[in-house]
Amino acid sequence: MDRITRLVDAMESNHLQLHYQPIATVNCDDSGFRCEVLLRLVDPEHGVMLPSAFFLQPSSTT
Questions:
Q1: With contact defined as beta carbons under 8 Å apart, do 33 and 22 qualify?
Q2: Residue 33 backbone phi and psi in degrees, to 5
Q3: CB under 8 Å, gap of 24 or more: what pairs does 24-28 form?
Q4: CA 5 to each of CA 10, 29, 54, 55: distance values in angstroms, whole numbers, following the listed order
Q5: 43: exposed, middle or buried (C-beta count within 10 Å: 0-12, 13-18, 19+)?
Q6: What is the residue-wise DSSP string for 2-38?
Q7: What is each CA distance from 17 to 5, 10, 28, 35, in whole angstroms?
Q8: Taking residues 56-60, what's their average pLDDT?
């Protein structure tokens, strides 16, 4: 199965999950909350997959 088909199937089957990861700063004066949002595909056969398994990597034009 190619990556685009896998991604479309995952969206239609609700197999995509969003997770967040807090970003801690070393600057004590910073009072804001920051987080990084992580997209994961939960495949019934392969379990949790990283984005590199289902997103196409941009090609370099340099």
A1: yes
A2: -100, 125
A3: none
A4: 8, 46, 9, 11
A5: middle
A6: -HHHHHHHHHHTT-EEEEEEE---S-TT-----EEEE
A7: 17, 10, 32, 16
A8: 62
Q: Check residue 51 and give its pLDDT.
A: 76
Rounded CA-CA distance 15/3 in Å is 14
pLDDT tens for 19-51 read 888 887 776 666 677 889 988 888 888 888 877
Alpha-carbon distance 37 to 2, whole Å?
25
